[in-house]
Design goal:
285 residues, alpha+beta, Jelly Rolls, Arc Repressor Mutant, subunit A, 3 domains, 10 helices, globular
């Protein structure tokens, strides 16, 4: 059977921190597939229950194998994944800047990195074991949602360093403002609205989000493109460019290549059930 990919939107208050949960599963008879996962602006946490996964950092030319649970930091380039036959994964995509409370680390330390989840959750192996015992994808998603919800409650009740709560609120407000203001958002206006200098806002984002405000704005704009073409075939790229805040179609193509390594037209030919994942051209075997 083809790979199963399923998204789940968590309920409040977890939805303030987690964009979505997901499962991806394939049978042992399915071919091994390599493809590229695109930047989404936030940290991802993944649990693997199948064969080891190959994670290839295309920019650095490094290969890492993971067979347990890991954290993928924010990035501005695609991450190449090797999904073997019998793949079996569940994960959470955090909203920009929202994973710090769950990992208790400045998210700037994770930018462009892939780190074993045990570095942040001493009980990561136990959580993975409980998820592995879930009888189907729905049960696994529900269990992960409960696990993250419990961690959010513990983080909310923990004694925090003075000023952290204010910074967390500021970052959440700033990210929401970038989303609301859409394509025409001005980073300078945003900083002024928050009572900060542009330089101060940049430092806060570098630490608490992992991407600067301009970089995050570009990623969010790119994600609007992915959403805009998800159910349109074939799209007018000039119209998409105008609707998503690009100067012109050429501007959209340049940004698209930066985040995906391919052109928008190639993306349409290679996209998968996960709109943020495209199969590599020569990678099915």
């Amino acid at each position: 059977m083809p790979m199963e990919f399923r998204l789940h939107l968590p309920a409040p208050p977890l939805s303030r921190c987690v964009e979505h949960l997901w499962v991806a599963r394939s049978s042992a008879a399915d071919p091994t597939v390599e493809g590229d996962q695109f930047p989404a602006g936030g940290v991802s946490v993944l649990f693997n229950f199948g064969p080891p996964q190959a994670l290839i950092d295309v920019e650095r030319g490094s290969l890492t194998w993971f067979d347990g649970a890991w954290v993928a930091g924010e990035r501005e380039c695609p991450l190449r994944l090797g999904a073997p036959a019998g793949a079996d994964l569940v994960g959470a995509q955090f909203r920009p800047g929202a994973a710090g409370a769950f990992l208790d680390v400045p998210l700037g330390e994770l930018t462009g990195r892939i780190v074993d989840l045990a570095a942040f959750w001493p009980d990561a192996a136990a959580v993975r074991e409980r998820l592995a015992l879930a009888h189907d994808s729905g049960a696994r998603l529900a269990l992960l949602e409960r696990e993250l919800g419990a961690r959010l409650l513990r983080a909310a009740s923990a004694v925090r360093v003075p000023g952290h709560a204010r910074l967390d609120g500021l970052v959440e407000h700033a990210v929401d403002a970038l989303r609301r203001r859409g394509p025409g958002a001005s980073i300078r206006d945003l900083a002024e609205d928050l009572g900060l200098s542009g330089r101060h806002l940049g430092r806060v984002f570098a630490e608490r989000v992992g991407l600067g405000p301009k970089a995050l704005h570009r990623v969010l704009r790119f994600q609007r493109v992915i959403g805009a073409v998800e159910s349109v075939a074939p799209p007018s790229w000039a119209a998409v460019a105008a609707a998503c805040g690009y100067f012109d179609q050429a501007h959209l193509i340049r940004d698209f290549r930066r985040f995906t390594g391919i052109t928008p037209t190639t993306y349409l030919a290679r996209r998968s059930a996960d709109p943020n994942f495209a199969v590599a051209g020569d990678a099915v075997r």
